[in-house]
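To: structure subgroup
Subject: Chain for Friday's discussion

All,

I'm putting the inputs and outputs inline so they're searchable in the archive.
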Amino acid sequence: MSPTPPARRLRLGLPRRMFSQVLLMQVAIAAGVAVLATGLFLAPLSKQLDQEAMRRALAIAETTAQDPQIAEGVRTTPPTRDGPVQKEAERIRRATHAEYIVVLDEHWVRWSHPTASQIGRRVSTSPSEALKGKEVMEIDKGTLGRSARGKVPLYDTDHRIVGAVSVGIAYDSVRARLISAIPGLFAYAGGALAVGALAAWLISRRVQRQTRDLAFSDISALLAEREAMLHGIREGVVALDRAGRIRLLNDEARRLLGIGDEAVGRAPDEALGAGRTTDVLAGRVTGTDLLTVRGRRVLIANRMPTDDGGAVATLRDRTELEQLGRELDSTRGLIDALRAQDHEHANRMHTLLGLLELEMYDDAVEFVGEVVGDHRATAEQVTEKIQDPLLAALLVGKATVAAERGVALWVSERTRLPDRLIDPRGLVTIVGNLVDNALDAVAGTPHARVEAELRAEGRTVVLRVRDTGPGVPEDQRDVIFTEGWSTKRPPAHGKRGIGLSLVRRLAERQGGSAAVCAADGGGAEFTVVLPEALTEPAPEPVLAGSAEPAARTANAPAAAEEEAR
């Protein structure tokens, strides 16, 4: 036979639902408070009733001791059942509803007592304090049981102590008054408990609505999951309260924005400073997938209001994607340049083929020389003025693209840039963006022309790009460098409004500036100043007897030109 499974033990515990737990705890607290309040009230009440009973007993004793018949009877008559002291004491006892009134002499012998057989006997408790002239109040136990007592000395007409008077009030009557007060106290306590239970129920219902009746364990798990999710996702999360202050930042938001815990509790304007990123977080700029630049990062921001009046903003790092986009644009520009060269090369080949078929050999030779000379002259002109290979290659390629679009791209005669750039890639980005914007501005206009000028002034690089386009209105010359601002239609692969913003950011990162003004003769002129953009020139060694090499060096450009010819 299979063993009988043990009986399942009944396990008592708190209910799982938060509503029930909160209600149970609050009712328990209300009940505990009611019981505590009742106990705290009953404890002083019992003591107060004791004090009241002892004072009443003392008052009756004083009244009895002031009766002249009592003192005279103790001094002149023996202690008997029918004596004047017994009669007077019993009269006062019945009138005051005391339990007993005992009159005794200096030898502790009773002269009165509710039980007549006790008259003439000594008292069971010491009256020495009263016989010394002191008043005594106490709770004590005598022959009639526990009672509240009051004892006073008994004086004769000459104010000599001839005995004492002891009055007792039954302690049971005091306890009866206390017990009679308990139902009323419990009624008040029950009413208070009922009100507390109702308040607890209302509060629990409100908590239930706000927490959607989740258990405490569920809330704890949600908080743990939220912390893990916030610090684990690869998107920045910024939470703001109803006053617009930052109340939460996850690790990715700290990294993307370049701020720390000191930003918590502050407004975005205080924590981040002025800028488009601040405007997006503060809600002054609305929309979805808003493009913004923070430092060297390109961010995509979204902001969603919350029910409590605050908001949650998410940030995604688009720096790598934007770099890929710029590389794609560069590749597209290279493809356009190659297509333009291919188109131009095909036309020239057709021309050369026609000259050969017409047997115009001398003209064909002259035509080939002109074509090769033009390309060589263009490349040599750029490389002579711009010694950095990246910038030179960029401008040569842009010149080819410009020619295909019907735009003349010129490199100014004042251009002189040595090969000592600290950040050539940054300058390539700046020049490329400005030239592309200029080409877009003049495309389709008559006599379209773009002129680029790069000049070194000590260690400072000054870049100017002029065009013959419509120019930039004066009221838009400040906002044109703002992230997301553009007059062009967004392309299919992304959004516009990044190029000029990056130009200014790259310039400011090097301590420089970027500005736009009207060009002479119309159009726009963009000026970028980059201080400390060049390294110090290396000193040239001067050797004795080096006049002849120096002369050869001075004549090198002429020789190179002669060789090129």
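Points worth raising on Friday:
The chain has three domains: 20-177, 233-317, 322-537.
The first helix runs from residue 18 to 65.

D.
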